[in-house]
Amino acid sequence: MAPPRRNPNPARDRQAGRWFVLAWLACCGCHGPFAGGATEGDVPAAGPADGPPPESVAYVPVENVDWTWEQIADVVDDYFRIERERQVQAVGGVITEGRIDVFPQLGATALEPHRADSVGAYNCWESTLQTIRRRGTFTVVPEGTGWAVRAVIYKDLEDLPRPEHATAGGATFRNDDSLPTRSDNDVSRTQLSNAWIELGRDVAAERQILEEIRARVTGSAGPP
After folding, report:
1. Domain tally for the chain?
2. Is the residue at 183 inside a domain?
3. Among 132, 135, 136, residue whose Cα is nearest residue 157
4. Angle between helices 203-217 and 120-129 (to 10 degrees)
5. d(Cα 207, Cα 171) in Å, to the nearest integer?
6. What's the helix, strand, coil split of the chain in %, to 5?
7. Domain contains 166
8. Residue 24 has pLDDT above 80, yes or no
9. Sign of the CA dihedral running 110, 116, 121, 124
């Protein structure tokens, strides 16, 4: 029986394998359904060491107060479920600020193309591979003949004591998962869990929502 043939050039095969892996990663990152150019949505939010992120504000003209507010609330509702809203109104001759609070929600994954809160390829795959939630507030400040709409959206990463469905140590008695005493805490519908790590502002989502609000209000279809 003839001895098995040895690869005459194993280094060349290893090099070809590396190029194949790099080409596959490039195709997934550049031609995927959520891929795009190098935008702010493809990088993580700035941390404390980078300084506070720039303020996300959009100025929109106001011709009809009720119609303009409905456009703002409708755009926000496309991304989040609204918890409460307070419209801009005149009280005693003073115009008050408007505010929209949204429920915290888990970030859209790569398998949910109908949701748009994960802006950019980085945020999309981050929400797919990790448990990410977003929460935000939108304030509307009257300025001159229009409104200044400010968006603040935060990202949180779930912090579990151990991986889900872990079976190691499941047959032993443990006391590190004892339920904490929360008898003095207020009951909240939006407090899903205490095990969340704040990742900072999601500037990409803020600016995309504000851009849609500006386009909706200043578009060709004006107020009735």
Report:
1. 1
2. no
3. 132
4. 120
5. 49
6. 30, 25, 45
7. no
8. no
9. negative
Tell me the per-residue pLDDT of 75-115, one tens digit each, with 9 for 90 and over.
999 999 999 999 888 777 778 889 999 999 998 898 988 88
Query: For residue 118, what is the domain's CATH number?
Result: 3.30.530
What distance in Å separates the CA atoms of residue 59 and residue 146, rounded to the nearest whole number?
Answer: 7
Tell me the residue range of the domain where 119 lies: 55-161+193-224
Sequence-ordered list of residues with C-beta below 8 angstroms from that of 133, at least 6 positions apart, any chain: 104, 105, 106, 107, 155, 156, 158, 192, 196
Residue 24 lies in a domain: no
- The count of other CB atoms within 10 Å of the CB of residue 219 is 9
Tens of pLDDT, residues 34-86: 344 434 444 444 444 455 566 788 999 988 889 999 999 999 999 999 999 99
The confidence score (pLDDT) of residue 56 equals 84
Say how many C-beta atoms besides its own lie within 10 A of residue 7's C-beta.
Answer: 8
Asked, for residue 89, whether it belongs to a domain, the answer is yes
Whether residue 10 has pLDDT greater than 80 = no
Helix axis angle for 65-79 and 203-217, nearest 10°, is: 140
Which pLDDT score, from 0 to 100, does residue 148 have?
Answer: 92
Picking from 155, 156, 150, 137, the residue whose alpha carbon sits closest to that of residue 207 is: 150
Q: Residue 108 burial (CB < 10 Å; 0-12/13-18/19+)?
A: buried
